Amino acid sequence: MSAADISSQIPENLKCIIFDMDGVLYDSMKNHEKSWTACFKNIGIDFPAYDAYLYEGKPGHHTIQEVIKKHLNRDASADEAEAVYQDKVKYMSQLPTPVFCPGMDKLLPLLRKEGLAVWVVTGSKQPTLLNKLGADFGMDPAHIISAKDVINGKPHPEPYLKAVAGSGFKASQCLVVENAPLGVKASKAADIFTIAVNTGILKPEVLKNAGADIVLPGTEPLISIFENYLKI
Fold this sequence. Notes:
Blueprint: H1 3-7, E1 16-19, H2 29-41, H3 49-55, H4 60-72, H5 78-94, H6 104-113, E2 117-121, H7 127-130, H8 133-137, E3 144-145, H9 158-167, E4 174-178, H10 181-189, E5 193-197, H11 204-209, E6 214-216, H12 222-230
Parallel strand pairs: 1-2, 1-4, 2-3, 4-5, 5-6
């Protein structure tokens, strides 16, 4: 399907583009995969790399509690979950800084130049990348919704509903770019048109089955799609 064909599916009167962070703006999912695998190994869990992509977008403590319940058949205490989370933060800080996903450093300025609002919604609260969004992508902190800002993380719609409310636009005037099935479920539960970019190791049908309106093989096609949509 051509960029023109895909752009024709995007709703009219678009005012705001909301991006996930990991795996959409930054090619960071390999780091998450490695750090999750390592911190769970420390407590006796053989955590499959594929599952890191399935859990992506869920707040870290929630992921830890679910994984411990699934693999060890018991509940994690708050102290244990925090210890595992801090272990993950430590591993993340030791890994190389991830590069931008292809084309994203050019796409966000292009969208702003055309008068579109740009927001970021992420399930992360780790400073590793959150603190770089301003310098790397010109993000206003007021336009970033992270795990620190919500009670219910993805796949609950709260993070995206909060971004929509903050933008001042209607959900029908917004579009989400996601790479994770839980993020897709969250954005669709918020009734937002959603493009999924498969930048990891998931099977494409996982993203489609989560509800994505469009599934792309990566971020590379986004610039030509939006150029066609905006007629520039």
